[in-house]
C-alpha cells in the first residue's frame, strides 16, 4: 500500500499562485479549489495542478461550460465531486445546490474526467463504492462512468502526477534495471588477452597430453566372437597334438 500526500490550495487571487511548482516537489497531488469564476477559468487554462475541487454546496454565478472544463480535462486535470456535504449538511439550500451543481457538472463534462471523494470530516460522511455509484446515477452519470470515477480515473490521476514529477516531460520514465552482464565471448577474449600478456596458457586451451578416459570394465564379447575364439583354440590344440605325434624321438 502506498500513502500519498495532497495539498489543497484555495484560489482567491489569480496573481498569487506562483508557489505551485514548489509545492509539486513536496506533495504527490496538488488540488486547487477556485472560489469564483475567474479563478476557475485560470485553473482550467493555465495552472499546473492535478485536481480541481469545487465546493458544490455553494451557488455559482454562471453555469459550467464544456470549453472551459474540457480544456482542463485535455490537460490531464481531474474534476473532483465531493458528496458528503449533501448527506450531512443540515442546510437544505446546501443540499439543493449540491444536486444542481453536480448535475450541471456531469452534463458539462459529458461524464469525463470526474473523480468522486467524500471530503468527510467523520466516518458518518463516508459511503461504500456501490452507494457512490448509485448516487452518481441519480445525478445523471451512467453506471460504467460512475465506476470509472472510483477506479480508473483516480489511478490515471496518480500515475500522471507521478510521471510529471519523476519523468522527462511527462513522457519518458527512467527506471534503473541493473547492470548489463558481460557477454561470454567478450569474457573469453579478455581471458586470452590476459594469458598472452602473462605468457601462460589458460587451463583447457590445449588438449595435448591429456589422458583419455579409461574404463576398468572390458567391452562385452558377442556370441559369434566367442564361437570364433573357441574354434581357434580347438584348432590350435589339434595342431599341437598332431605335431607331437609326428615328432620322432632322438
From TrEMBL:
The keyword Nucleus does not apply. Residues 232-243 have a biased composition (Basic and acidic residues). It comes from Setomelanomma holmii. Keywords: tRNA processing. Its main location: nucleus. One of its GO terms (biological process) is tRNA processing. Belongs to the eukaryotic/archaeal RNase P protein component 3 family. Signal peptide: none annotated. One of its GO terms (molecular function) is RNA binding. This is Ribonuclease P/MRP 30 subunit. It comes from the Eukaryota.
Amino acid at each position: 500500500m502506498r500513502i500519498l500526500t495532497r495539498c489543497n490550495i484555495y484560489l482567491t487571487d489569480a496573481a498569487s499562485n506562483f508557489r505551485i511548482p514548489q509545492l509539486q516537489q513536496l506533495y504527490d497531488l496538488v488540488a486547487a479549489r477556485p472560489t469564483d469564476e475567474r479563478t476557475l477559468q485560470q485553473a482550467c487554462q493555465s495552472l499546473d495542478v492535478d485536481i480541481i475541487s469545487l465546493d458544490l454546496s455553494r451557488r455559482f454565478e454562471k453555469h459550467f461550460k464544456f470549453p472551459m472544463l474540457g480544456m482542463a480535462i485535455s490537460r490531464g486535470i481531474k474534476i473532483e465531486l465531493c458528496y458528503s456535504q449533501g448527506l450531512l449538511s443540515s442546510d437544505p439550500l446546501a443540499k439543493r445546490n449540491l444536486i444542481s451543481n453536480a448535475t450541471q457538472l456531469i452534463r458539462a463534462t459529458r461524464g469525463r474526467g470526474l473523480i468522486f471523494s467524500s471530503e468527510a470530516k467523520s466516518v458518518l460522511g463516508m459511503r461504500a463504492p456501490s452507494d457512490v455509484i448509485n448516487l452518481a446515477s441519480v445525478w445523471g452519470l451512467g453506471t460504467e462512468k460512475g465506476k470509472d470515477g472510483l477506479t480508473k480515473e483516480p489511478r490515471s490521476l496518480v500515475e500522471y502526477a507521478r510521471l510529471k514529477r519523476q519523468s522527462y516531460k511527462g513522457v519518458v520514465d527512467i527506471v534503473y534495471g541493473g547492470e548489463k552482464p558481460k557477454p561470454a565471448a567478450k569474457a573469453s577474449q579478455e581471458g586470452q588477452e590476459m594469458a598472452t600478456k602473462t605468457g601462460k596458457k589458460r587451463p583447457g586451451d590445449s588438449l595435448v597430453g591429456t589422458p583419455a578416459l579409461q574404463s576398468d570394465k572390458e567391452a562385452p564379447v558377442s556370441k559369434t566372437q566367442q564361437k570364433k575364439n573357441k574354434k581357434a583354440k580347438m584348432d590350435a590344440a589339434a595342431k599341437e597334438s598332431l605335431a607331437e605325434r609326428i615328432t620322432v624321438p632322438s
